[in-house]
Amino acid sequence: MSFHGVPGNRRITMRDLAEATLRGEKWPMITAYDALTARVFDDAGIPAILVGDSAAMVVYGHDSTLPVTVDELLPLVRAVVRGAPRALVVADLPFGSYQGSPAQALETAARFMKEAGAQAVKLEGGAAMLPQVEALVSAGIPVIGHLGLTPQSVNLLGGYRVQGRGESGELLLRDAKAMEAAGAAAIVLEVVPADLAARVSEVLTIPTIGIGAGSGTDAQVIVWQDLVGLTPDPAPKFVRRYADVRTVIGDAVAQWGADVASGAYPAPEHAYA
Predict the structure, then answer these.
(1) How many Å separate Cα 52 from the centre of its chain?
(2) What is the third-level CATH fold of 14-242?
């Protein structure tokens, strides 16, 4: 796919994505954590790539996003920026790196912008994070908010549950409006009722990015390993498997291992004279 109206010789910006939303165009965002897959997604025309704190789980093997650190995410962001010369690259601010104060948030975000080359950052939380958003925007850093199921608050939420049902939906809507007023460039809505996500999307003028939020948001984001079937089952309800890469890779490696054991690999054509 190509991204409408953006010259091919420059990187896509948050402004480009916002203008696409105003034109009524939906757009995709996908995660990446290394240069090789980032290049694949960039060549596929994906306009935005998130280097998510989900790396804690899919890269580092933890059972939640909480353990990953700034120092662990920085090299991943650098790699993705190098691998994807066209897509907007967004860095996730990990747990504990921004909640303490606006000054802490600015210090962390500045590292991702200066040391890794990110073009925007994402942070979780509602009204309590407004001072952080304002500080980052004042410093010239595009910020994507994240409401609904916020994985960094999984212990407070009591697990990975649908958020925004009943009266809590009104609170989420108020938080979304406040985030926009504070200068957020877009907002991720994760695992919230589809009608609530559509309502938020209608009210806001900035893009909404859904994950488990129905089809009424302006954009969609997904963890790439979920998309292609690399992560084990069961997958979240909102995931559609577009491939079975886990089986493809497993079969290929098993066949290679068997060929090595039998002497079938390497064959003469794989050797140098």
Answers:
(1) 5
(2) TIM Barrel (3.20.20)
Three-class SS state of 145:
strand
Q: Is 190 a catalytic residue?
A: yes
DSSP, collapsed to helix, strand or coil, labels residue 132 as: helix
Q: Where are the alpha helices (DSSP H) in 86-184?
A: 102-116, 130-138, 154-157, 168-182
Q: What is the pLDDT of residues 188-235, one digit of tens each?
A: 999 999 999 999 999 999 999 999 999 999 999 999 999 999 999 889
Is the pLDDT at 82 greater than 70? The verdict is yes
Would the pTM of this model clear 0.90, i.e. be above it?
A: yes
d(CA 143, CA 77): 16
Q: Where are the domains of the chain?
A: 14-242, 245-273
- Which of the following is catalytic: 72, 134, 167, 190? 190
Strand partners, 257: none
Q: Name the β-bridge partners of 46.
A: none
At 134, list the tokens: 């304002």
Residues 6+ apart with CB under 8 A from 32: 38, 41, 49, 50, 51, 80, 83, 84, 224
Short-list 135, 139, 119, 123, CA closest to 16: 119
Cα gap 73→93, rounded to integer Å: 9
Give the DSSP H/E element, type plus range, for residue 250: helix 245-262
256's tokens: 């290679």
